[in-house]
Design brief:
The structure is a homotrimer. Among the domains of chain A are: about 100 residues, Hydroxylamine Oxidoreductase, Chain A, domain 1 (Orthogonal Bundle); about 150 residues, Hydroxylamine Oxidoreductase, Chain A, domain 2 (Up-down Bundle). Chain A has 26 helices and 4 strands. At the A-C interface, helix 1, helix 18, helix 22, helix 24 and helix 25 of A face helix 5, helix 6, helix 14, helix 16 and helix 23 of C. Chains A, B, C: It catalyses: hydroxylamine + 4 Fe(III)-[cytochrome c] + H2O = 4 Fe(II)-[cytochrome c] + nitrite + 5 H(+); hydroxylamine + 3 Fe(III)-[cytochrome c] = nitric oxide + 3 Fe(II)-[cytochrome c] + 3 H(+). Chains A, B, C: It is an enzyme of class 1 (oxidoreductase). Chains A, B, C: InterPro entries: HAO, Multihaem_cyt_sf, Multiheme_Cytochr_ET.
Chain lengths: ~550, ~550, ~550
């Protein structure tokens, strides 16, 4: 530690926080307080709940609000009968559980070799037992024997439940009963406040992703509920923990591998998985990591005992100043999507300190100079993307304002409530009818929600072909050309039409419409900001 | 078994068939009968065979019809010389074979430990020997010594062949000589009949994929034979078995892993591989499966001896009511692509019973209630996609009928025989000339053949971002906006043109063309169904 | 060897070179000569260097020209203190190095078992020591003890350096000091000359990829330097070796796996990674390779000691007539992109002999007949793609020549210097302003740079759905339809406009504009080749 301190000082002021805290001392959060807040701040159906009814599958995405036990199995089931019966009827679930830590507490308790990568679980088990004693769910000194079906689907320590009355699907608080530290850490994401109000308090984060889902206007308003529930399939982290720790292994080793993040963090709106995969970080993971690293060790030991020679999603995003936690927003800067309200404030201390924290993260392997240079390039590259997107935005908004979009006056149904019409809005990615959105609006929505985000994500995750070419910059420009073409065509056509008097669509345009110079200036026009694109920000 | 029965009953009526048959008792199909039918129903060049000539590479895709031994190696080659020579000239093929079961029959025969995951192969070997005795290819009681080059590329048990005369590339029947049960199972796919004639008998399936290929109109008609043979590279399963059991390992363990399906089941028209990869099933496979599961065990033992904690392509699609077989169509419902003829008949017992069979499949790990809810949501979500696609279809067909497509009257070559012109047809995905197809037709073809299929496949394979956003729903709407824009523009333009008299393109349109209200109604217009989109259905 | 010879002769004349040389005898290149040429031919900032200034991160992409040690750490650091300090401050880099061959030279030297897959490294170490003696960096008979931080970041064998003065980031020549054979092989790529001048000498290759980068017109000219440096993140192989041998493991085993190529060789302009992944080669790699192959063995032993049963990127592209080297261009034929200048010369001996060399490569596992048939089909399929692309090219160029592109006369800024305006040029993939490029030009640029390349790459890497459907042929046609539609519309509109006199855009068009027959002929028009598309060719 002294060596580390001396070297860090020698290494310069860029890395003071390397003198970090390692693994945080086991905190002792107040379970009751965390749980009460959890339920209090949970939105349930949310403020648009009167506009939609849950479909059956949604009882699994938000069990707290929608789950009811099936009537098909009635009567009392005991701790033992749960297991024996489900061994027969759902053997996959049984075998996963049977080989999990939950079913092998004694094996963990009896680990004597500190070199066993799972040795840390022994300490974790003691922490859990202490927590259960505190809650009155375990007697002082009594060892927790196992975590069986009934502990999670009934209640901790129950001997029997009524299958058709008591059966529940565990929520965050259920897991948090034992895993209180992780529950409290994850819930702490709600405390994040943005310095210039770029996002509402706590947003965006896993801790409020269900709220962001049900209070999203088009999600609440769209008629196709089976499509809408597809959003829930990722946006349920606020509700339960099996998004990362899949049933019924609940394996920490699994959750430490990037594939655990991939189901949600891929694709057109945030291609983190693809970026990691195609970065050099990914190369090392897939060639060396899969063959040699030990994912059983906790994240704090990844580079040492774990043998990691490259980062994973988890080693960077769970870390903050050398400490690892289930609060993943402590280094968030650009968050979900690049926007001017962030670009314009990067020099604010809130953003600066987070950039410094990132530098430390990268500097576990790279020099601070490399890290700082890379992060700065990524910031600037992101801003270069915003400039293209903003130019297109003004063009699309002006077309809307001028009533020139195809079908705008003749065939533009309004979106379903609570959504309101707007050009290039988020809703236009998930709803369309007649000429709403016009194609050019939809293309603009793709620009800000897809191209620009992928540019930003590709830059920060070091996927070079990704952000320059395959995704990001080059597609951003392709969409830009379509918008500029369409603008020129629609305005020329309006000018011609006005001249021939065949249509009055462009009556509000002035006579300078025919002036070529006007179009050269077109992209520089500042349109009054009254037409706000409805982004995801809740 | 009794326990399983009792629990299943307790578990309710949803899962009666869990009292399944496990691994089907080794059937003893009549090889000669299966073989005769195989050749009889094989289409060879198919009914459009006079329109195309095979290019050299196609002798490998359909060896039965096109393969001729090379003249470069002449004279007799013995069982031994095949091996020694190919060890030198094609060492990759030799080493793969050398480490395969085919070259190690004695090792399999001598397995004494029933715990060895390959132990089941001992029984399989006995089954093969019995089959060979039946065919007169092995003496009663004589052990099969090895399966060498000559057994497959000449004939079973041959001592020598004429390399330039007798050499053959094995077809399904050649593999079926030993692997008769699997051959018979795979061929049984041809027996499937659709209750409302949605597809021709046996279609779609691996067992008739070559027929579907050579009798596809644009495949037979297109001039670019080197592009067309790209289709063959997947559509040859009817011809040979190395699509899944790759040369020269023919490894069952390899064929049990999802990557074995990936070469054909990926991409724009059926992205099963991407969906599996990005589902939680995929996460578990890539994190736990690759590290710990034993792919040597047969599928029936996957969850138990194999340690599987999630499904693979194979565990779900080879299974039917607890039995595993090479007949993969026993639970098919939506098949290759969503269509109204299926959507409108889902309550028919044929579809209902298959949904129930799927529920049982999912219920190996999930509750029947979860399975049923999920499958219902997937059905309904698929239908929601069909509705968008059908609306666009009517618009495109009306444009075609009204002669309003760009260049329709001036630059629309007819497609090559035996194809016939139609708006938004399958052929327009693989052929284009002048203004056939117009861009809007091609976009519509992408809607029904790509977007809608990916929506459906993403839903059923539980890839949430896939079906809502990256593929499926959101791209379906993007294409929809382009079609609606184009419709409005072409009809407005036709109206204007009619007014100015400059073009007579729209002469058949009535004077209500200029009425804005008309376009609001446009998408509701029911166009007479005389313009049939030429789908893949053979 | 005699057996191999006899069999090869028996096997016919197609495979004479199978009597290859195995692993080339360790060459003894002249390090000084190679190094001098390396620096002499290195372009530094290149011929457009006055147009751009490096941003900070670029000091890592071209350290030779831009790297300066940080001022934050001053004073002398010793061989030992480098290690101890960096163990604390960059533990990830330290641990990677600690487990690398560089830190374990004695372990390699003491290998006694010739069966150890790393045994070949013992010979390699002796070769390195001999090289160092030759350069006066090691005494005759003195064993090289380790390769530590200081040897690469200071100078070989140094005891101490001034951290703020002497610290360097290693370039190709630094690695080549020890790894001289590989350095010389890699540099030999510069010697390649194309028979008809399709590419400049040495291009395209890793050995000149930095030159190709900095002398690319739009790279040099574009204002967004943080986007431009994204190109550098792949185009730095000319500068350093860690593109394949990642820091600080520098693992040969890692570099032998396809993922090592994936970071650069993926995506829209050359989807080799996707093609391999989705080919049967990939299937075998991911199922059998990842589980069983030994990547520690050198490539020449891959099929034998390594147990490979399928090729990797490396086994095919490092090989030439049985010999493996870091010169990867010895079998290059179509190179980066398909073009008529190659298509028209495939029967030239230069191309023919390379095709034969490829046949030998494939014939390690496949028959020469299969290999030859496949390669011929891939050639012809590529040419079929070129025909579609060339037809579209003529249409776009004619629109440009006729001044009919949207906004061409009113809102078409010129691209930044040194770029010059042209229709459908490479620059239009990375730069856009106003109506330059028009959407139709950008779509054409996507055709030749993306669709056509992916068609070609998919064909040659045996990804069937890739080249026919998901990428390649079908997208090529989709883009074609957009171009043909736009051509028809723009010309019809110009005709109409001319008729009404509203715009003079089309004044140069003749009166046959209205003749439908004209458009049927449109695609056959031969446009004078004066408008040259600016491709990547330097």
């Amino acid at each position: 530690m002294i060596k580390k301190l001396l070297c860090a000082l020698l290494y310069g002021l860029l890395a003071p926080a390397l003198i970090g805290v390692g693994y945080a001392a086991p905190s002792e959060p107040d379970f009751q307080a965390v749980k009460e807040r959890y339920y209090k701040e949970h939105p349930g159906k949310g403020k648009f709940g009167d506009l939609w009814e849950p479909i059956p599958i949604q009882k699994y995405w938000d069990p707290k609000d929608f789950y009811k036990p099936p009537a098909t199995v009635s009567g009392e089931v005991t701790r033992e009968s749960c297991v024996t019966c489900h061994q027969a009827v759902t053997p996959g679930a049984f075998h996963a559980w049977e080989n999990s830590s939950h079913a092998q507490l004694d094996r963990i308790r009896n680990l004597s070799n500190g070199q066993d990568p799972r040795f840390y679980k022994k300490e974790k088990l003691a922490e859990v037992e202490k927590q259960l004693v505190k809650q009155g769910l375990l007697k002082e000194g009594e060892p927790l024997k196992e975590v069986g079906c009934i502990d999670c689907h009934g209640s901790v320590g129950a001997k029997a439940i009524q299958h058709d009355k008591d059966l529940k699907m565990p929520d965050r608080a259920a897991c948090g009963t034992c895993h209180t530290a992780e529950f409290a850490q994850a819930e702490a994401e709600k405390d994040q406040e943005w310095p210039q109000g770029q996002w509402a308090k706590g947003h965006p984060s896993h801790a409020v992703d269900w709220k962001a889902n049900v209070e999203n206007l088009i999600w609440a308003g769209m008629a196709e509920r089976e499509i809408a529930q597809g959003c829930d399939q990722c946006h349920y982290q606020q509700n339960k923990c099996d998004g990362c720790h899949t049933r019924h292994s609940f394996s920490a080793a699994e959750a430490r591998q990037p594939e655990a993040c991939a189901t949600c963090h891929n694709g057109v709106d945030h291609n983190e998985w693809e970026n990691f995969t195609l970065s050099k970080h990914g190369t090392v993971y897939f060639t060396q990591g899969k063959a040699k690293w030990n994912f059983e060790v906790p994240l704090k030991d990844a580079l040492t005992k774990g043998g990691y020679t490259a980062p994973t999603c988890q080693t960077c995003h769970f870390e903050f100043q050398g400490e690892y936690s289930h609060n993943l927003v402590r280094k968030v800067r650009w968050a979900f999507n690049p926007q001017t309200a962030i670009a314009d404030n990067l020099h604010h201390p809130w953003f600066e300190s987070r950039k410094q924290a990132w530098t430390q993260t990268c500097a576990q392997c790279h020099s601070p100079s490399f890290a700082e240079s890379y992060l700065t390039a990524a910031d600037k590259g992101t801003i270069e993307g915003i400039q293209v997107e903003q130019e297109a935005k003004k063009v699309v908004e002006a077309l809307y304002k001028d009533g020139l979009l195809p079908g705008q006056k003749t065939n533009r149904p309004v979106p379903p409530k609570p959504e309101q019409d707007a050009p290039g809005g988020f809703f236009q990615l998930f709803w369309a009818k007649g000429n709403n959105p016009s194609h050019v609006e939809r293309v603009y929505a793709d620009m800000w929600e897809h191209d620009l985000i992928k540019l930003y994500k590709g830059l920060f995750h070091a996927n070079p072909g990704g952000f320059t070419y395959t995704e990001g910059w080059s597609p951003l420009l392709r969409d830009y050309t379509l918008i500029m073409d369409e603008n020129t065509k629609l305005r020329e056509q309006a000018g011609k039409s006005a001249a021939t008097g065949a249509l009055s669509l462009a009556s509000q345009r002035t006579s300078d419409e025919g002036d070529p110079a006007r179009w050269v200036l077109g992209s520089l026009l500042v349109v009054a900001g009254t037409l706000v694109i409805r982004k995801r920000k809740p």
